[in-house]
Specification:
By secondary structure, this protein is α+β, with helices and mostly antiparallel strands. The protein has eleven helices and 22 strands. The chain starts with a helix and ends in a 12-residue tail after the last helix.
């Protein structure tokens, strides 16, 4: 066999071997890529994303798109070829697997956590939107969960409204722990609660829960893993519940969007609600996308995967992107052509910027590039 032919054959075999190795060898990385965007003013799977009843609504044109990131599953392991391709591609990001699934978290656990965060973000989006419109929302402290085999099991239930502890009214979840820990383990604490069913009926009727029944619970000592160092020489008393907040809205707001998780759509849901509850178009018919968590006070928080969300938004046709302040630096470093970043810290910032976009006065928009 001629030397040249033998060399080419050997090189081909080596290349095939390397390709096979690249496909077979798994690496501890995961991939993020642009996910779908959804117009909160429009429909998803044939039904409106935002459904409001019991209050006058107004037609809204334009786009207020929430954005998503698509990620590989927890159980999927990339091979070398996929990892290299992902590193070279502009529209995907390869990150260590533990970045997306820390502490050995399974895909099911991650999905459940994302679903809970998504549900909470919807609740906060409603509250922030109505507060921005000066529509009253009543807030109450509730039992979020009950620890198995704790003193509260069978006595308190998730969804119960906590009106008072030892006769002292509670207005924040932290009030519950403060009042309980005034006791020593083994002492009784008295909760005044409205049972979950009665509270749900009141919420459905658009009114705050009234009345209350007293339930006595004997406190226990916090487990060492939770208690840490003793404070003031006394062990910390617990009853085995996690307190949270719930809201009663004056009318019904439903957010219908499947197969989406996490808290990052909060801002765009809030803006969509505001647009539907006010005359005229918030966007002036423009294509605006964005992202950001939102809390009850209307503060916009940072999110993950900002560069992928920018690519997804621009591919969908967005011209403006509402960007959380804390994400501005990374967003400005890799902004797709034709997309204008708008810096937002609060829901009020966002509505003011949309007013400028609507009026065509975009030169004065708060920019990520100008600080």
């Amino acid at each position: 066999m001629p030397r040249r032919t033998a060399t080419m054959l050997a090189s081909t075999l080596v290349l095939i071997a390397l390709l096979c190795a690249g496909v077979l060898i798994k690496v501890p990385y995961a991939e993020m890529s642009p996910g779908p965007t959804v117009n909160t003013l429009g429909e998803a799977r044939g039904e409106p994303v935002l459904q409001i009843s019991g209050r006058k609504t107004y037609p809204a044109s334009g786009h207020l798109n929430m954005t998503t990131v698509r990620v590989t599953g927890a159980d999927y392991r990339m091979n070398i070829v996929e990892a290299v391709y992902g590193w070279l591609a502009h529209d995907s990001v390869v990150v260590p697997h533990d970045t997306l699934y820390p502490d050995g978290k399974t895909e099911e656990q991650s999905t459940q956590e994302n679903a809970e965060e998504f549900s909470q973000s919807q609740e906060s989006a409603k509250v922030a939107a109505l507060k921005e419109l000066d529509i009253p929302v009543s807030t109450q402290v509730v039992v979020s969960s009950v620890v198995k085999d704790s003193p509260s099991e069978g006595k308190l239930h998730a969804g119960d409204v906590i009106k008072a502890v030892d006769g002292t009214a509670v207005t924040e979840p932290g009030d519950v722990a403060k009042l309980v820990t005034k006791h020593q383990p083994g002492e009784n604490v008295v909760f005044t609660i409205v049972p979950a069913k009665e509270a749900a009926a009141a919420e459905k009727a658009g009114r705050a829960p009234e009345g209350g029944e007293k339930i006595t619970i004997k406190t226990a000592k916090a487990p060492a893993a939770e208690d840490g160092a003793e404070e003031g020489g006394k062990n910390r008393a617990i009853v085995g519940i996690k307190a949270g907040t719930d809201h009663t809205f004056p009318f019904e707001i439903d957010i219908k969007l499947a197969d989406v998780g996490g808290p990052s759509a909060g801002l765009m849901f809030s803006l969509g609600i505001i647009d539907k509850l006010t005359p005229g178009d918030l966007t002036g018919g423009k294509f605006v996308a964005g992202t950001g968590t939102i809390d009850d006070a209307g503060t916009v928080g940072p999110i993950g995967g900002i560069t992928m969300k920018l690519v997804g938004a621009r591919n969908a046709g967005a011209r403006y992107f509402l960007t959380p302040d804390d994400n501005c630096a990374s967003a400005a470093a890799d902004t797709p052509d034709g997309l204008t970043l708008v810096r937002v810290k609060t829901i009020e910032d966002a509505t003011k910027s949309l007013e400028q976009i609507r009026a065509g006065k975009t030169a004065g928009l708060p920019s990520c590039s100008t600080g």
